[in-house]
Amino acid sequence: MHGMHARLPKHFVLEERLERYAAAIELKPALLAGRWAEASAPLGGRPFRAVHLDAGCGKGAFLVASAQAEPDVLFIGLDAEPICVAYAAQRIVEAGLRNALIVPAKGSDVASIFAAGELAGMTINFPTPFPRKKEAAKRLVSLERLLEYRAVLAEDAALAFKTDHAPLFSFTLTQFALAGYEIVYRSDDCRADHPDTPFSEYEERLASAGARIHALIARAGELAGPPIQNASLSLADYLPDDLHGLSYIPHGMQGTVANLRNRRDREAARSAP
Ligand SMILES: C[S@@+](CC[C@H](N)C(=O)[O-])C[C@H]1O[C@@H](n2cnc3c(N)ncnc32)[C@H](O)[C@@H]1O
Fold first, then answer.
1. CATH number of the domain that 182 lies in?
2. Counted domains in the chain
3. Greater confidence, 241 or 84?
4. Staple partner for 49: which of 60, 72, 181, 244, CB 3.0–4.6 Å?
């Protein structure tokens, strides 16, 4: 996570939590590929109308609110962090939801968890930015991941992405373009555009700290041949030239921005007449 983990309650025992809320956790998701809508429907009930994935769902606030809003759609949350899985499962169980599940897995597992075209929609809210080049492969919005998502998204399915992290947002735009997606909506203040959509935990926290939220909705378009990564992978390269004018620095970038500011100030002082 961004290093913004809420503190764990004193008597939080992960294994015990995972067991208590196991009804909402799917431990063998690959076995359901291609049949999520039928296999997850309540006994004797009709298959779900559609399947939606919330990748990097965290503690599940957005997942649960989305599932409550559309009871005939199955909402699957995916997260690699067991503590988040436990919290999201607890939220689902306590809300009494039959149309939400959480899958403990990585973004790179998505292609083996769903069949081609199985997802009617996907959200990625405030993914961990992993700002350094050497960690770029872990981002949920890398070229590689976006190509894998294409395969499991239905034709015309929308992939919605949100972040407070302007450098990550700029990097992501390069990746969506390379992966052949069309951007059908883009905003640097999406909350102002859509005040009534559910908040994720991070959006709630960051928006109340004054962050503006960058967002886009993309659909897979034409892809001519295998794309070649030509974008810079370090998020420091997506910072603006005027670092002193930056009014909002996303969590995890403060050190980088301070170092770059100092370096640029020293260079400016050296080259001053
Ligand atoms: C900053 S939190 C945001 C959580 C939630 N989406 C929200 O908006 O409140 C990022 C989440 O993504 C998960 N995550 C990051 N990279 C991931 C990956 N490659 N695969 C699965 N989960 C990942 C983290 O465990 C974390 O829960």
1. 3.40.50.150
2. 1
3. 84
4. 72
Q: Does residue 179 belong to any structural domain of this protein?
A: yes
Residues 213-271 pLDDT 10s = 999 999 999 998 899 999 999 999 999 988 888 888 888 888 888 888 898 889 888 98
Residue 246 lies in a domain: no
Q: How far is the CA of 127 from the centre of ligand 1 (A)?
A: 5
Q: Which domain holds residue 103?
A: 14-233
Pocket of ligand 1 (CB under 6 A): 1-2, 56-58, 78-81, 84, 106-107, 125-128, 138, 140, 200-203
Q: Please tell me the distance from the alpha carbon of residue 189 to that of residue 54, in angstroms, as a whole number.
A: 21
For the whole model, what pTM was predicted?
A: 0.93
* Domain assignment present for 255: no
Which numbered atom of ligand 1 lies nearest the CA of 204? 9
| Cα distance between residue 124 and residue 121, in whole Å | 10
Tell which residue, 48, 148, 57, 145, has the closest CA to residue 104.
57
